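Holo prediction — cobalamin.
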Amino acid sequence: MADILGEIKKNLIAGRVDREDEGFDEDMVGQPGVTELVRQALEENIPPADILNEALTPGMEEVGVLFEEGEYMVPDMLASAECIAEATKILEPYFSGQEIQSRGKFVIATVEGDLHDVGKNIVSTILQASGFEVQDLGTCVKADDIVSIVKETKAGFLGLSALLTSTMTHMKETIDKLKEEGLRDQVVVCIGGAPVSEEFAQKIGADLYGEDAFDAINKLDKINAPGN
Ligand code: B12
């Protein structure tokens, strides 16, 4: 089991979506890429959450380190992001499928200035699978637009994602605008993304910080959610 997770991680780092892709080395053409390996892992009954948490997410973390060290450029990050996006599409049905009673409307967005959506998309998938009615506003969404949608849909939950330290400030801006509009008490605000933390959530007045979707759902279960 560990071997195939390791192979998925290795191929994600090499940006190989499928067997047609070269990766670092032309010799790799013809060998299974991330999508084929994910399907194989599922056939071997490896839990989808393990594929996500033990292969795909740590693989992306390593890509981030390689970028930081100057070894990877933006197109390399994009190739790996495509791998994880395709893998998530394969995993999606395994996270959903149960008929669950709606747990309320959940609006989610990546904040203004930020184009990262891999993590947000995974969180959306898992929230949906746990019974939330998710409305995903996409990336680079302005605080004003987020607040308008929360108002319009009367959503009980709002998830904000940021991957850049420079865009984290838009989370506070969004919360402040919710207050200005008199909506703050009606919506549980949940934040996430690599640079944010529990402390940051407290500082900006968010209700909770989710390290990942599973953590967010555990914490949401403990909150007596208003407005849904
Ligand atoms: C892939 C990637 C890209 C891709 C994004 C493609 C896409 N469609 O998303 C591209 C190539 C576009 C990109 C661009 C840039 N990137 Co980039 N990118 C990454 C990388 C390698 C991986 C991010 C990722 O997908 N991780 C995998 C997912 C599964 O993890 P995640 O996003 O953290 O999400 C999980 C949790 O955080 C959490 N979560 C996330 N959101 C939410 C929301 C809620 C509500 C909850 C509860 C939880 C939650 O749950 C998720 C699932 O577990 C990171 C490095 C890293 N380790 O984060 C750099 C990184 C974020 N990028 C970085 C940089 C600098 C850039 C650029 C400025 C590069 C450039 N010079 O152009 C641009 C900025 C573009 C922009 N305006 O946004 C830096 C940020 C530095 C900083 N501290 O600000 C990083 C950290 C790389 C580095 N080490 O330097 N990037």
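READOUT: Residues 74-95 form the longest helix (22 residues).
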